[in-house]
Amino acid sequence: MANKSIVNLEAFSQRAIRKAVREKALQSPGFLYPSAIGVLACASIAVMELSPVLLSVAAVSLGIGSLTMLWQLVFRREAISRDYLNQMHKSMTTRRHQMLKELSDRMTELSFFEGIEQLEHLQKKFANFVGMLNQALSPEEITYGRYLGIAEQVYLSSLDNLDQAAGSLTSIRTIDPQHIKNRIKKIHEDGIVTDTESIEQESLNQRQELYNKQLERVAILVAQNEQAMTRLDFTAAAIAEMKTQSGQASMDMESAMAELQTLIEKAPNYNRKA
Questions:
Q1: Could you tell me the pTM of the whole model?
Q2: 9: phi then psi, degrees, rounded to nearest 5
Q3: pLDDT surpasses 50 at 173
Q4: 140-149, 185-194, 218-227 — which is least confidently predicted?
Q5: How far is the C-alpha of 196 from the C-alpha of 204, rounded, in Å?
Q6: Core-most of 13, 106, 220, 238, by most CB within 10 Å?
Q7: Count of Cβ atoms closer than 10 Å to residue 26 Cβ
Q8: Looking at the predicted structure, is the pLDDT value of residue 65 above 90?
Q9: How is residue 11 annotated by DSSP?
Q10: pLDDT tens per residue across span 229-273
């Protein structure tokens, strides 16, 4: 199954938030319509005789558009930023809940108990992270939204890993290693390997190699998730420090969140290697 993350790594960066504010300001009716009227008035002045009326219309319209833009960028910046972050969180939360149900059912069907256990740990650690974040910051703060967003990306990335692991296990569920072992043993039972048996053994070895390769892939994906959970623990500890310190603790928190984001960036794309 393809990777299901729906939010890119830059979505919660300060640069992305500033871009969202600019786009919202540019799309504001209070900027668009007066600016359009002002531009048309200027164009009319360019092709016609200078008219005091057109000049006034252009000046007033462009002035209104500029003031609206300034209002959006300065006085409504935080409100627009919060709306943007809330929209991202809502989208990620919906996707996460859907993936949790699908993953739980798939892993149970596959008897992928290691994955089921890891999924439970992921849920607990993310809940602990959110709890610590709620104690340290107000949900109304932009910093709160940024930190929560990055942690949600780590969570979704871990769910993606479990989804890929389940896919690997599904692909080899019809391969029976014991059957392969028994057939190879039988081929060599009399000490003579015929041409037909040699062909069969080669096919059996290929199946065994595929089986081992997919199990190794599952192990790597599970190990990546363990690394992610460790970073969530360290980040939760950094959040706890925010309650008692201000300057250095905030720097430590930024560093911890940067490590979480780097963790996702360095994760190999196993979909392309499958």
A1: 0.71
A2: -65, -20
A3: yes
A4: 140-149
A5: 12
A6: 238
A7: 13
A8: no
A9: T
A10: 988 888 888 777 765 444 444 445 556 566 666 655 554 443 333
CA nearest neighbour of 177 among 209, 217, 199, 200: 209
Q: Which whole-number Å values give the CA distances from 62 to 38, 68, 73, 74, 108, in the listed order? A: 5, 10, 16, 18, 62
> Pseudo-torsion of CA 33, 35, 38, 42, nearest 10°?
-130
Amino acid symbol at 170: T
**What are the residue ranges spanned by the domains of the chain?**
77-272
Distance CA 182, CA 108 (A): 29
User: If you ran DSSP here, which 8-state letter would residue 245 be given?
Assistant: -
pLDDT at 196: 92
| Contact present, 115 and 222 (Cβ < 8 Å) | yes
Taking CB atoms within 8 Å and a gap of at least 24, the contacts of 234-239 are 234/259, 235/129, 235/151, 235/259, 235/260, 236/125, 236/128, 236/129, 236/132, 239/129, 239/132, 239/133, 239/135, 239/136, 239/147
H/E element, 12:
none
Q: Which H or E element spans position 113?
A: helix 113-136
The residue to which tokens 């706890």 are assigned: 240
Tokens at residue 261, please?
Answer: 């984001």
Residues 186/127, Cβ–Cβ less than 8 Å: no
Residue 56 amino acid letter: S
DSSP annotation string for 176-204: -HHHHHHHHHHHTTTS---HHHHHHHHHH
Question: What's the token pair of residue 195?
Answer: 């041409």
Q: How high is the pLDDT of residue 265?
A: 53
Average per-residue pLDDT in the chain? 81
> pLDDT digit string (tens) for 35-62?
888 788 788 877 776 777 777 877 888 8
